[in-house]
């Protein structure tokens, strides 16, 4: 079994340090850009409108992430990265690049922006893959983190677009409520999923990389995901250059089918994840790591809620024990699955021992509906 090496803690510290520094720098830069983009009133209105699709989009990704929820702090970090680091990095790279390689506005929109923006967003997923690989269990995790980065990016970008539309500093016309409404409908109602959708291809690539033993797949999948992200982003941006007909054509013939396909794929992966978790926990049970009778209460989402409701009636200590037990057992199941596949993280042994310690500590205080609390 792989053992925990010195690289594990160092990698976690390096990830936290790099992401924190870049987030602070990016936040300062983007807040300054936003502050200079219009009057306080118009910026406040733009921020409120840009925030409207954020909640529903985040809720969709949290729904996908219910079997083995990712750390809320890391999901929030993905939002921050997309909102501040990726946006600031994009502005800097395109600004500096434009000084050396002058290109037309249409070429910048259709080519440069997709290349730079998807690279800036994808860097967060690559940092996870490089330094926090243990947080990635497969494709679904990659999709969830990609979604968070895309949502954060779209939120800040929408503030700038909405403010520019209202102030009349973009190409939509003289500004005012009519221009603001048009921009809001297109960006926040018709296509709020655009940036999460583009970056989802990188998330799928990273998820494949972490769950496969083939070096070619581990190296090529993220790169292919990036190429697909750029291609769909470029097609979307280019559609706006062809007027309303071009936009509607790309939206109906490309974006909507792609969006539906990714949703179907995500739901399929989620269902497969359930089957995988059952198989892994059954193998763990045969090895004596946890009772087989507990598995349905750990895997089925409805049964999980029923078990927690049952524990809540027994008191706060029972509810806390149930939550801790379910979380530790599910984490163990995903970790054991990676071990069985031959792709365990470097700290597999240490993490597995920590989950088992937690399981054994709280199991005596856990009872499921129809069961008595085990003897302590």
Automatic annotation (TrEMBL):
GO terms for molecular function: metallopeptidase activity. It holds the Pfam family PrsW-protease. The chain crosses the membrane at residues 12-37, 43-64, 76-101, 107-131, 143-164, 184-208, 215-236, 248-269. Keywords: Hydrolase, Membrane, Metalloprotease, Protease, Transmembrane, Transmembrane helix. InterPro entries: PrsW (IPR026898). This is PrsW family intramembrane metalloprotease.
């Amino acid at each position: 079994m792989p053992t925990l090496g010195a690289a594990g803690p160092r990698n976690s510290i390096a990830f936290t340090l790099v992401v924190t520094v870049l987030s602070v720098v990016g936040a300062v830069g983007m807040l300054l850009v936003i502050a200079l983009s219009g009057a306080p009133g118009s910026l406040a209105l733009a921020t409120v409108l840009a925030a409207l699709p954020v909640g529903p989009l985040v809720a969709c990704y949290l729904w996908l992430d219910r079997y083995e929820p990712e750390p809320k702090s890391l999901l929030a970090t993905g939002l921050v990265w997309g909102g501040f680091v990726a946006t600031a990095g994009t502005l800097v790279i395109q600004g500096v690049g434009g000084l050396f390689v002058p290109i037309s506005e249409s070429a910048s929109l259709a080519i440069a922006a997709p290349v730079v923006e998807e690279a800036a967003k994808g860097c967060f997923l690559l940092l996870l893959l490089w330094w926090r690989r243990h947080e990635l269990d497969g494709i679904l995790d990659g999709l969830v983190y990609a979604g968070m980065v895309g949502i954060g990016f779209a939120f800040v970008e929408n503030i700038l677009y909405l403010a520019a539309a209202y102030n009349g500093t973009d190409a939509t016309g003289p500004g005012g409520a009519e221009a603001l409404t048009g921009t809001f409908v297109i960006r926040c109602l018709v296509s709020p999923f655009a940036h999460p959708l583009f970056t989802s291809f990188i998330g799928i690539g990273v998820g494949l990389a972490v769950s496969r033993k083939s070096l070619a797949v581990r190296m090529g999948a993220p790169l292919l995901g990036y190429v697909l992200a750029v291609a769909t982003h470029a097609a979307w941006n280019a559609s706006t250059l062809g007027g309303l007909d071009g936009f509607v054509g790309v939206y109906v013939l490309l974006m909507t089918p792609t969006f539906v396909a990714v949703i179907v794929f995500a739901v399929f992966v989620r269902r497969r994840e359930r089957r995988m978790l059952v198989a892994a926990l059954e193998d763990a049970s045969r090895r004596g790591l946890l009772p087989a009778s507990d598995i349905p209460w750990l895997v089925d989402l409805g049964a999980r809620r029923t078990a927690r409701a049952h524990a809540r009636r027994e008191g706060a200590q029972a509810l806390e024990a149930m939550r801790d037990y379910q979380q530790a057992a599910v984490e163990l199941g995903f970790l054991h699955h990676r071990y069985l596949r031959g792709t365990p993280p470097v700290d597999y042994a240490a993490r597995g021992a920590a989950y088992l310690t937690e399981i054994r500590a709280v199991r005596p205080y856990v009872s499921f509906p129809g069961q008595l609390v085990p003897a302590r």
